[in-house]
Q: What sequence folds into this?
């Protein structure tokens, strides 16, 4: 388990809204974060690997490495974050399960759960990132 | 949308997705995986061209949910990424009420299809419908 701070900035919300199709979004100091905005916490995660880093080669994640693919995502909202909030993101491993794939092999699904709490320690959003990969790539 | 089982909302959420939007999303989200902006990398790893982040498709679909639930009415939003979404694709999201709960909230199914009718994202959500 690890944690980091995620400051919710009005300009970042504007940038994100424009990227997901609200191309004329303006910078609103009272803006409510759009439904999937919490994924942008990755910009503040010091361990996030889908970015340029001075200490490792680029690109760091090759498909042949067996890291799998992002298969789905679930957000549960306790309250909707707004510009000005400073959240704490806590990242932990979630559930793991196996399922038969359409091509006959077994697939391994794994959750990464990020819990966002506000400055008062109250829960804001819980995000579940679901990754999938072939089970034979991960079994000993 | 009315709080009745079967009530629907249909919205074009991307009208010809551009490569520029993929790059904008990489910057906004922080996800610079080269599959989503580096054509050479994508083609040398078995894809025809770059394709959208699954989370971009989910974010784009989220526009329809904001229309239905308002900016702060959602309690839950989950989705599975079923097929790649490519530059040039036009996406339509359909939101259908599947249950009306005793507290006034509703459950919905979400389906996002491309211009060929291919289902690219399937999901569910719950929350309170926006007024009006």
A:
């Amino acid at each position: 388990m690890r944690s980091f701070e995620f400051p919710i900035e009005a300009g970042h919300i504007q940038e994100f809204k424009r990227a997901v199709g609200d191309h004329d979004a303006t910078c609103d100091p009272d803006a409510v974060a759009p439904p999937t905005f919490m994924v942008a916490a990755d910009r503040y995660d010091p361990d996030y690997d889908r970015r340029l880093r001075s200490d490792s080669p680029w690109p760091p994640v090759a498909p042949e490495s067996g890291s799998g693919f992002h298969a789905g995502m679930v957000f549960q909202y306790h309250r909707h974050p707004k510009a000005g909030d400073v959240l704490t993101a806590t990242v932990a491993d979630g559930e793991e399960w196996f399922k038969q794939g359409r091509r006959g092999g077994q697939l391994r699904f794994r959750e990464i759960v990020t819990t966002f709490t506000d400055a008062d320690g109250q829960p804001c959003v819980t995000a579940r990132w679901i990754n999938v990969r072939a089970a034979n790539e991960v079994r000993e | 949308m009315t709080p009745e089982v079967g009530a629907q909302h249909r919205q074009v959420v991307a009208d010809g997705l551009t490569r520029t939007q993929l790059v904008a999303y990489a910057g906004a989200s922080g996800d610079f995986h080269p599959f989503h902006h580096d054509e050479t990398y994508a083609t040398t790893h078995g894809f025809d061209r770059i394709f959208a982040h699954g989370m971009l498709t989910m974010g784009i679909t989220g526009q329809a949910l904001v229309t239905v639930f308002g900016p702060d009415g959602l309690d839950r939003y989950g989705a599975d990424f079923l097929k790649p979404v490519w530059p040039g694709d036009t996406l339509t999201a359909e939101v259908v009420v599947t249950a009306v709960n005793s507290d006034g909230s509703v459950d919905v199914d979400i389906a996002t299809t491309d211009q060929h009718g291919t289902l690219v994202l399937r999901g569910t959500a719950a929350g309170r419908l926006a007024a009006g």
